[in-house]
Amino acid sequence: MKIIPTILTDDSDKALEQIEALRGVADWLQIDVMDGTMTDSSTFDLYDLVGEVNDFQIEVHLMVNNPEEYFDACETLAAERVYFHLESVESPSFILEKMEYFSFERGMVLSPQTDVDSIIPYIDDIQAIQIMTVAPGKQGQSFIPEMLDKVRELKKDYSDKWVSVDGGVNEGNLKEVQDSGVDAAGVGSAVMGVSDIAGAYEDLVKMAG
Questions:
Q1: Residues in contact with 199: Cβ distance below 8 Å, sequence separation at least 6, in sequence order
Q2: Global pTM value
Q3: Fewer CB within 10 Å, N or C, the chain?
Q4: Rounded CA gap, 182 and 155, in Å?
Q5: Could you count the other beta carbons within 10 Å of the beta carbon of residue 194?
Q6: Strands 28-34, 2-7: parallel, antiparallel or unpaired by DSSP?
Q7: pLDDT tens per residue, range 143-176
Q8: Tens digit of each residue's pLDDT (9 = 90 or more) over 89-119
Q9: 2-208, superfamily in CATH?
Q10: Per-domain boundaries in the chain
Q11: How many CB atoms lie within 10 A of CB 108?
């Protein structure tokens, strides 16, 4: 299981500090983007990171109502994977068609209230699925273990798809998360919420083996 630190802040300077702390330590980063519509808060401009993340592999988690407006910025950052929320768009098929013009993998996110069946009509058009194990929008929330049932269902029926979880993952539930068969876990406050960001990340990587 891959451990992927997640950047979620409205302050680009803080994001750059977190990125610097992980440079040479982590290989992947997830950049969380919020526009204040499907969430209460908004984040900094993705273009603020141009030239700052070249030595990381990047995935972008779009918690927005118009994800297509961010695809150019994702491509500029050389993102390898971009997720949008199934629940936040009127036509997922329209968004997936727009994504075809870009080089990144296409991913969808399922919030806690959304069941796996909702994604099946689009399963052949995506490469990755992210399961939210908290309500989207802020770090530091409590992990919802029942969401791991979605992981198990997806890995059983669609083993070729990249499946990750995001939200509330920490040392206390890491083994439970790993045992679900998930490919990656996005980790926010358990890493970004401590003084030794690099050390916290490395501890989780060791636990995950």
A1: none
A2: 0.95
A3: C
A4: 8
A5: 12
A6: parallel
A7: 999 999 999 999 999 999 999 999 999 999 999 9
A8: 999 999 999 999 999 999 999 999 999 999 9
A9: Aldolase class I (3.20.20.70)
A10: 2-208
A11: 24
